Amino acid sequence: RRFLTYGVSGGIAEILIMLVGPLAGFTLPLQAGQILWVNLLTHGLPGVAMGNEPAEADVLSRPPRAPGEQLLNRRTGGRIAALGLVVATATLLAGVYARRWGHPWQSTMFLGLTFAQLAIALALRPRRTSRHHNRALLGAVALNVVLAVLAVSWRPLQELLRTRSLSLAEIVPCLLVAVVAAATARWQTRH
Predict the structure, then answer these.
(1) Tens of pLDDT along the chain (191 residues)?
(2) From residue 82, how far is each of 87, 88, 90, 171 by CA, in Å?
(3) How far, in Å, CA of 71 to CA of 76, rounded?
(4) What is d(CA 25, CA 99) in angstroms, rounded to the nearest whole number?
(5) Which of 92, 114, 117 is nearest to 105 (CA)?
(6) pTM of the complete model
(7) Which partner for 116 in 30, 42, 134, 181 could form a disulfide, CB atoms 3.0-4.6 Å apart?
(8) Is 94 in contact with 109 (CB distance < 8 Å)?
(9) Which H or E run includes 98?
(10) Cα dist. 57→105, 189, 191 in Å?
């Protein structure tokens, strides 16, 4: 369920950004290559590492789920949709902010969306396990943060993905998108 929440909420966010973005004045919110890069980074190594996340320590002391309970039930579906909506809204707001101040808005939205999805992977980790128990996930997220930053700072990737350089100050809205996404995902796991 954690992986489903992670993967599908990111897909919903991408769809909403592409559908609502033009209504917010973004002719093409994200390039096709940018969407593919986001998916490669967020569903590649972090997705595999999430699949290797150890079970929570008290998993055997909890009552079992009902045999007929759907994997994607109404409650989980609602959480996924809400998380996707929050990520899309935060990403679009970061783009609006960047455009308002003359910053590269498409690169801001691209990096914000990537950071948000990687932050969700960390936020969805089981609460009752050691923080460093799944080092593969931490390593995968760290590596992909570096690759995401390279996508907006290294000339060959900039040309391939049609991104522009972002200063450290221009990366701040991208980090805020990630914080909002992680906080929402963490809040959902507690309620």
Answers:
(1) 788 899 999 999 999 999 999 999 999 999 999 999 999 999 999 988 987 777 666 667 777 777 777 778 898 999 999 999 999 999 999 999 999 999 999 999 999 999 999 999 999 988 765 555 788 999 999 999 999 999 999 999 999 999 999 999 999 999 999 999 999 999 998 88
(2) 9, 10, 12, 25
(3) 8
(4) 10
(5) 92
(6) 0.92
(7) 181
(8) yes
(9) helix 74-100
(10) 43, 16, 19
At 149, list the tokens. Answer: 């930053």
Determine the pLDDT at residue 47: 86
Cα–Cα distance, 164 to 98 (Å, whole number): 12
* Alpha carbon distance 147, 153 (integer Å): 10
* Angle separating helix axes 168-190 and 74-100, nearest 10 degrees: 160
Cα–Cα dist 39/43, whole Å: 6
Amino acid identity at 46: P
d(CA 162, CA 37): 11
The half-sphere exposure of 144 on its side-chain side, counting CA atoms within 13 A, is 28
Return d(Cα 29, Cα 101) in angstroms, integer.
Answer: 17
- Chain-centroid distance of CA 54 in Å reads 21
